[in-house]
Design goal:
By secondary structure, the protein is α+β, with helices and mostly antiparallel strands. The chain is built from 13 helices and 15 strands. It folds into two domains: 206 residues, Thiolase/Chalcone synthase (Peroxisomal Thiolase, Chain A, domain 1); 124 residues, Thiolase/Chalcone synthase (Peroxisomal Thiolase, Chain A, domain 1), CATH 3.40.47.10. The longest helix has 22 residues. The relative contact order is 0.18.
Length: 380
Amino acid sequence: MQEVYITKISKYLPNQAVSNEEIEDYLGKINGKSSKAKNIVLRSNKIQQRYYAIDKNGKATHNNATLTAEAIKLLLDNKAEAFKEIELLTAGTSSPDQFMPSHAVMVQGELPEFNAIEVMTASGNCCSGVQGLKYAYINIASGLINKAVCAGSERLSRTMRAEQFEEEIKELNKLEENSYLAFEKDFLRWMLSDGAAAALLSNKKEEGKLAYKINWIESKSYANEVETCMYMAGEKDDNGKLISFKEYNPEEIKQKSIYSIKQDVKLLDKNIIEYGYQMMKYSLEKHNENTTEYDYFLPHLSSYFFQNKIFNKLVEEGFGIPMEKWFTNLKTVGNVGSASPFLMLEELSRVKNLKVGDKLLLMIPESARFAYVYISLTVC
């Protein structure tokens, strides 16, 4: 087995940062009313700014593929010879621009500098970017290839615009029901951000430059135990079963805003930490390790609401990690889903005085159907 290194990480966050006060300037006000949930959610998640690939009129400035392509250009310094060395491209997202072709081939299509190479799309939610990373890691470790580019990206702002919910609100008005958007949909409008990040993987590190050696990557889904929690292009019935958009007629799709992204917050709160702990315990015990061996803990948080809950759970179970070892940039970049693990690593590399031998543990949870990825890295 070859060693595998993350030798460089890049990011691309579109346009200027959007403050909490400006969100509705970009996303609009549903039914002309400011959201009831907005201030409650923002106080809880503690996000201070985020990025959108749209202007204040809702016009797109980038699609998902172009966001990802910009991150990859920065990763490879826009050098033609660097593109020619890449043998595999993986790209994960929960918000592709279309159902087909796949997201990753559309990214490759934005970058003619690439040769004809293997391309893999990781479809899913927050874990999709690092699931692509694991695919590349296995290919390099087994000696099949030497270099790969792995990306994670999201572009959800257009689907969160007020006009997406107009038909649903009209229907509520007709029925003389509360004409505010349901919390399960409105909640996520104050959580999510657009952006992309990419990592360069190689079987060799560059002389004189710090890199991250990948020690192991563990991934599990608990979909066999828990019903759907976060979903898009579907609707849950009274029994918790997810019904596909294909089962609705065009009028129903508009009236129920079926294409919007939704989350069952009660299901989230009940399960996300418990299964995350189970997965951490499994991963560390499998590799005969303990959290005390790690110098930095990088949890992908959707909200700071969960930070103390995770901290207390780990302490209670004997896996406590002192808060001074935690690192996250949720507050300043927002929740960028599949790009978030890469964004944390990119910023950690810039703002911390990393030393050879430092060990990092990344935790990436995904609430869609409760999947988790843990990654162990060593600075070298």
